């Protein structure tokens, strides 16, 4: 896979474009549902939903303590169908025990909101059901990808996301808040028809992977997910601490578009996850993959940056109107930071996960959070919104460069062992 042509043909040969398309559709469906629900729910209902949803995101990151990540990573490096099925059954049932515990903890957190919000426990119950549904959904998708059934993966993913969006629109329109809650709780369960290889007897099956090593990988996956979510909420919290609500709104608006461009790199590398995992000891494959990835995404990043620079005023006016017309500088700083993130943090984060070096992602996330906190203390009081944009760029770049160095050290070790 030395040439770009072979790189793209290999991507298409393994039906990577189906995975790419379905993940892209899920991103669009999520964006549309977020926008539409603002208009379908009352302000109070939307506020309560936002609070419970924000808390549930932490538990979604911890989903099954990374059981589906274990299935995807170790299932891909297994060449035996029986081992893949044994692994699938084991991590499903063991992960389900962890998930039930997490659901109980999630419901207990409602105690802190009962006095302040009426009927908030009902929201927690629906979101707890959603956590279980997402657990089943993630496992079904992971198993299909392990088996190389990318077309079927795309069908299931599209069914849950498009079907869930349609159901949410209809039920929310006719039944308001409870219609919305029912739709988001039920939609992930569409995937249960594709749950295969989860015979409970497989909980005690043997497979050629150390259980301690697997769950360490799974725990680090879950922990890294929480830290990543923290990174992209900490900037908002810090803006609120150093400035005010208006500053927070201005900052969020300035970085709304820049923070979403990374989905291009994420979707591409996630589509190739099984291929990277299967070649986790092949230094030549890994370096060729990086080289060909750069052939696509370095020019694309430059194109995005230059296009944003010349069209920033038009883009900001088109999406946000005259109210936010003066956000050109923080907007461009954000574009710079997230373009760098695409070719460092996003690329090497996914590759580290695929080769089993999840600790690289954990280290990178911790360093990024530390850089954000330190740099914002100096830059935000002086440069305000632009200062926080620079702080986020420094955090993304610092963490991304560190992850790049760690991954190249892994490749060097593979070469020395060859």
Cα distance spanning the termini: 19 Å
Number of strands: 0
- Overall 3D shape: globular
Question: Radius of gyration over alpha carbons?
Answer: 22 Å
- Average pLDDT over all residues: 85
Give start-end ranges of low-pLDDT stretches: none
Sequence of secondary-structure elements: HHHHHHHHHHHHHH
Number of helices: 14
Percent strand equals: under 5%
Helix and strand composition category: mainly alpha
> Helix coverage percent of residues?
over 70%
Q: In this structure, how is the largest beta sheet organized?
A: none
Structure notes:
With 418 residues, the chain is an all-alpha fold. The protein contains 14 helices and no strands. It has helices at 4-13, 16-40, 43-61, 67-76, 81-108, 120-146, 150-186, 211-242, 245-256, 263-271, 273-278, 283-320, 328-354, 358-417. The two termini are 19 Å apart. The mean pLDDT is 85.
Quick recap:
By secondary structure, the chain is an all-alpha fold. Helices cover 81% and strands 0% of the residues.
């Amino acid at each position: 896979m030395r040439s770009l042509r072979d790189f793209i043909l290999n991507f298409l040969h393994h039906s990577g474009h189906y995975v790419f398309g379905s993940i892209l559709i899920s991103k669009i469906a999520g964006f549309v549902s977020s926008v539409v629900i603002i208009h379908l729910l009352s302000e109070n209902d939307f506020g309560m939903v936002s609070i419970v949803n924000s808390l549930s995101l932490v538990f979604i990151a911890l989903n099954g303590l990374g059981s589906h990540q274990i299935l995807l990573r170790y299932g891909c490096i297994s060449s035996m169908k029986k081992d893949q099925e044994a692994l699938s059954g084991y991590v499903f049932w063991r992960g389900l025990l962890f998930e039930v515990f997490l659901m109980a903890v999630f419901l207990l957190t409602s105690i802190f909101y009962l006095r302040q919000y009426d009927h908030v426990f009902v929201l927690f119950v629906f979101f707890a059901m959603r956590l279980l549904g997402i657990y089943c959904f993630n496992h079904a998708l992971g198993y299909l990808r392990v088996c190389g059934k990318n077309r079927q993966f795309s069908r299931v993913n599209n069914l849950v996301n498009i079907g869930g969006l349609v159901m949410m629109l209809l039920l929310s329109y006719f039944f308001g808040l409870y219609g919305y809650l029912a739709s988001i709780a039920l939609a992930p369960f569409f995937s249960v028809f594709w749950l295969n290889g989860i015979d409970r007897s497989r909980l005690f099956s043997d497979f050629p992977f150390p259980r301690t090593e697997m769950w360490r990988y799974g725990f680090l996956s879950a922990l890294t997910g929480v830290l990543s979510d923290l990174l992209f909420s900490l900037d908002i919290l810090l803006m609120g601490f150093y400035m005010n609500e208006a500053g927070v709104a201005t900052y969020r608006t300035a970085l709304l578009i820049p923070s979403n461009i990374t989905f291009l790199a994420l979707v591409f590398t996630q589509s190739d996850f099984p291929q990277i995992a299967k070649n986790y000891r092949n230094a030549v494959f890994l370096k060729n993959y990086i080289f060909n990835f750069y052939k696509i995404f370095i020019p694309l990043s430059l194109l995005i940056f230059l296009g944003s620079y010349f069209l920033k005023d038009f883009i900001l006016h088109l999406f946000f109107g005259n109210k936010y017309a003066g956000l050109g500088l923080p907007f461009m700083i954000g574009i710079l930071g997230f373009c760098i993130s695409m070719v460092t943090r996003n690329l090497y984060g996914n590759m580290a996960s695929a080769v089993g070096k999840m600790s690289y992602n954990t280290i990178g996330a911790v360093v990024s959070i530390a850089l954000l906190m330190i740099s914002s203390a100096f830059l935000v009081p002086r440069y305000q919104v632009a200062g926080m944009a620079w702080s986020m760029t420094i955090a993304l770049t610092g963490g991304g460069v560190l992850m790049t160095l760690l991954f190249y050290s892994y490749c060097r070790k593979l070469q020395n062992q060859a």
